[in-house]
Prior knowledge:
By secondary structure, the chain is α/β, with parallel strands linked by helices. The chain has helices at 11-22, 40-52, 66-72, 99-109, 131-142, 162-165, 178-185, 195-201, 206-212, 216-219, 221-232, 238-248, 251-269, 282-291, 294-312, 317-328, and strands spanning 29-33, 79-82, 119-123, 148-154, 169-172. Helix 13 (251-269) crosses helix 14 (282-291).
Amino acid sequence: MKISSVFPWQQAVWQLLVQSRARQTMPHAFIFSGLSGVGKLHFTHAVSAWLLCQQPTALGACGQCKSCQLWQAESHPDYRFLQAMTDEKTGKTSRMIKVDQVRELVSFLNKSAQLNGYRVAVIQPADILNINAANSLLKTLEEPGANTAIILLTDQPLALLPTIRSRCQHFSLSLPSTQQAKDWLLPQLKKPEQADLLLRLTENAPLAALALQDAAGFQVRAELAQSMVAVVERKVSALQTAQQWQKNLKPEELLPALQLLLADTLLMVLGQDSAIKNSDLLPIIRVLANRLSATRLIELHGDCVESQRLVAANIQANLLLDSFWQRLQ
């Protein structure tokens, strides 16, 4: 993995860690939380390489020592990254991190570091540890041994067990200011004129904004909104529209896009036009707002949220989406 410095909006948390290490008061267990797309994993990679480095500086890992060379080759013996497992045969990723995975991690942490420095373990995302896995981690979090760092990443810190949270030092990685986010994002965009729109759609999360520019759901927002209008006005069949969009977008892309369009329409109905995220689609959203009441929009938005939850639980997406378009009509 590449050794890189933290993003500008992460400097405050970085300096806290540098000061803590200089005072020899570095915690042994961390929670790094923040909105998806704020750069938690990037920050964690920088911290992990820095902790493992044999010649660390206040700016990060040196990039030259044996430890840094192993890090860049992705073969560091004192580092482990734990995430949900993917079945090689089916290609499906588990929705949970399981107890056997944590037991293997605990076994690793109980051994001596091969390079006589830190041992670092990262769990991403920590909020999907199942109850047995979380409980198996508790003793190690409480008594991890010297020069051990256990880093838990999460978008939802309150989803972690209280017993987990109480054993870790919590660092919240906040969103950058609008100007910081835009300054970082602009040079990397294919269409710089989309910067403001992308940041609005991603709650000002720069990495999410950068990824969104190539997302299929972003490219077809106007077409999707027009399909919603056509269904509401009964110009097209709800089931035919459902089948069309199931071919165009994956459920995990389609449902959030529908949800955001409904939320924007509700904002217009309530007279909150300035808060609308799909600001380039105002004429289409206005048509929807003229045809759907606030109560109906709240119901449909709730349907989308519940459908996302069910799709994540492997409930048949096709049936859920057929039902949504029929309810919309």
